[in-house]
UniProtKB/TrEMBL annotation:
Protein name as catalogued: Glucose-6-phosphate isomerase
Compartmental location: Cytoplasm
Lineage: Bacteria, Bacillati, Bacillota, Bacilli, Bacillales
Highest taxon, organism lineage: Bacteria
InterPro entries for the chain: G6P_Isomerase, HTH_17, Phosphoglucose_isomerase_CS, SinI_DNA-bd, SIS_dom_sf, SIS_PGI_1, SIS_PGI_2
Annotated signal sequence range: none
Pathway: Carbohydrate degradation; glycolysis; D-glyceraldehyde 3-phosphate and glycerone phosphate from D-glucose: step 2/4; Carbohydrate biosynthesis; gluconeogenesis
UniProt cross-references to Pfam families, sorted A to Z: HTH_17 (PF12728), PGI (PF00342)
Entry's Gene Ontology BP terms: gluconeogenesis; glucose 6-phosphate metabolic process; glycolytic process
Length: 529
């Protein structure tokens, strides 16, 4: 009989009155109904609810076969994707794998090194990764539901070229695996045209809910992790967290208590772990809750911390700073490996009282002491504990948070399954990059950018004043515009000279008007700082 994931909110109960808790029960029931009868906002994105039961078995088999192929013909798998298209796989790999897996000698490693890329726009990151690939056999899994996300698309261009250079176009095709929409999108079309093997992100599962689909499963399978156990864990969790009754459903209790805390000003939730292997699980969780709840001017801000590391940096704030925090500690009952503290005859650090103690035990005491201190400091503490860091419990944990997030979003009164706010920066970025169709926005945004700057280069000053660069340069050289050398270029402090910008413009008008007459010597735009 499998053990269960434990949720304990005893260290938060002092912050929530009994009637506040009881009053949430009917709201939980409504949220449960909305989710299960598919009547709430975002109802077209509830495919994840029954996915652990209803996933496509044929595709699952194809994932297994593709992973075996990658394991046999590749030293490296590159996983290209961003947000929901990489965080889940990275989280699972980090927890189930070796902390330094990619660096292990080949004799200690049975499966390919795995690197995640296309999750930033950093040329440094990509060129450094290319250095690592020298002399290695590489396969690529490109993951994008929309197929048009900028970061993975740029990375894919670069690595596709890299593969084609190394293997030739035809052989490269056998090393490219695409995970995208079933029918639509640029990536799907490219995959069909080129004959890349394709896996599906179902229409009714959003990116942040997709880790148990091909999105997460292919990289997870390549890493050698047990995807059957992962799915079984999620399946059992689905069953376990189906109960509508708040008093008997830990998943709903988590949703309820965080909502109760939010209502009284605890607007930041810190997901805390004492194992660095959970770092990316927290990143996955942050996207899950951040994109699901942060809208309509509402939502708990999901943040994370790693203890005891961050107790030496953020610890002061958590203990003593603004009281808008609560913590959810993710704990593993039994560490996968343990070490013993050695005796030091000189006892220079005074720690001989720990001699013979297991490090896992010391970590546990750090955790227990911290919880008490933080609760005393006014930080409610929740605990989510898994028996062991295995694929089975991880599958359950993923489902626990996915469902809690959906319910929590409904309690908050938002659509937990859309993310309209993510588009704003994208539209601006496209406009600034000159994407066709964005011409009007481009001019407006560039004007705003110039307006918001303190320092302008010659080029920016020229654009700002709509004057030729040569004119600005000439006036700087004549000493009529004050500028300072910054490396090879001049920069102009716009704020300092703001009241003169108009005069610089006039200077130009004078010149234009009196093209044949000299500019009056007395007109000087130089000024005190
Ligand atoms: O899978 P993709 O379509 O490339 O999307 C990747 C990510 O980017 C977007 O900006 C969304 O906000 C995320 O929810 C999504 O996970």
């Amino acid at each position: 009989m499998n053990k269960t994931i434990r949720f304990d909110y005893a260290n938060a109960r002092a912050f929530v009155k009994q009637h506040e808790w009881e009053q949430l029960a009917p709201a939980i029931e409504i949220a449960h109904q909305m989710l299960h009868s598919r009547t709430g906002p975002g109802k077209d994105y509830l495919g994840w609810v029954d996915w652990p039961e209803q996933y496509d078995r044929d595709e699952y088999e194809r994932i297994r076969q593709a992973s075996a192929r990658i394991q046999s013909d590749s030293d490296v798998l590159l996983v290209i994707g961003i947000g929901g298209s990489y965080l889940g796989a990275k989280a699972v790999l980090d927890i189930l794998g070796h902390s330094f897996y990619n660096l292990l000698p080949k004799s200690k490693r049975r499966f390919p090194e795995i690197y995640f890329v296309g999750n930033n726009i950093s040329p440094i990151y990509i060129s450094h990764l290319m250095d690592v690939l020298e002399g290695k056999n590489v396969s690529v899994n490109v993951i994008s539901k929309s197929g048009t996300t900028t970061e993975p698309a740029i990375a894919f261009r670069l690595f596709r070229e890299w593969l084609e250079k190394k293997y030739g176009r035809e052989k490269a095709k056998k090393r490219i695996y695409i995970t995208t929409d079933k029918q639509r999108g640029a990536l799907k079309k490219l995959a069909d045209d080129e004959g890349y093997e394709c896996f599906v992100i179902p229409d009714d599962i959003g990116g942040r809910y997709s880790v148990l689909t091909a999105v997460g499963l292919l990289p997870i399978a390549v890493s050698g992790a047990n995807m059957d156990a992962l799915m079984q864990g999620a399946r059992d969790a689905r069953e376990r967290y189906m109960v509508m009754d708040l008093s008997d459903n830990p998943c709903y209790q988590y949703a309820a208590i965080r909502n109760a805390l939010y209502r009284k000003g605890k607007t930041v939730e810190l997901l805390v772990s004492y194992e660095p292997q959970f770092r990316y699980f927290a990143e996955w969780w942050k996207q899950l809750f951040g994109e699901s709840e942060g809208k309509d001017g509402k939502g708990i801000f999901p943040a994370s911390a790693e203890f005891s590391t961050d107790l030496h940096s953020l610890g002061q704030y958590i203990q003593d700073g603004m009281r808008h925090l609560f913590e959810t500690v993710l704990s593993v009952r039994k560490p996968a490996v343990d070490l013993t503290v050695q005796e030091d005859p000189a006892d220079v650090d005074g720690l001989n009282f720990l001699t013979g103690k297991r490090m896992g035990y010391v970590n546990k005491k750090a955790f227990e002491g911290t919880v008490l201190a933080h609760v005393d400091g006014g930080v409610p503490n929740l605990l989510v504990e898994i028996p062991e860091a295995t694929a089975y419990y991880l599958g359950g944990l993923i489902y626990f948070f996915e469902k809690a997030c959906g319910i929590s979003g409904y309690l908050l009164g938002v659509n937990p399954f859309d993310q309209p706010g993510v588009e704003a920066y994208k539209a601006n970025m496209f406009a600034l990059l000159g994407k066709p169709g964005y011409e009007r926005q481009k001019a407006e945004l560039e004007a705003r950018l110039r307006e918001n700057k303190t320092y302008l280069t010659v080029e920016e000053t020229a654009a700002y004043l709509e004057l030729p660069e040569t004119f600005i340069m000439e006036k700087i050289k004549q000493g009529r515009i004050r500028a300072v050398h910054d490396g090879n270029e001049y920069i102009i402090n716009k704020e300092q000279f703001n009241h003169h910008l108009e005069e610089i413009r006039k200077l130009r008008e004078f010149e234009d008007a009196a093209r044949h007459e000299p500019i009056p010597e007395s007109y000087d735009v130089k000024d005190e700082d």
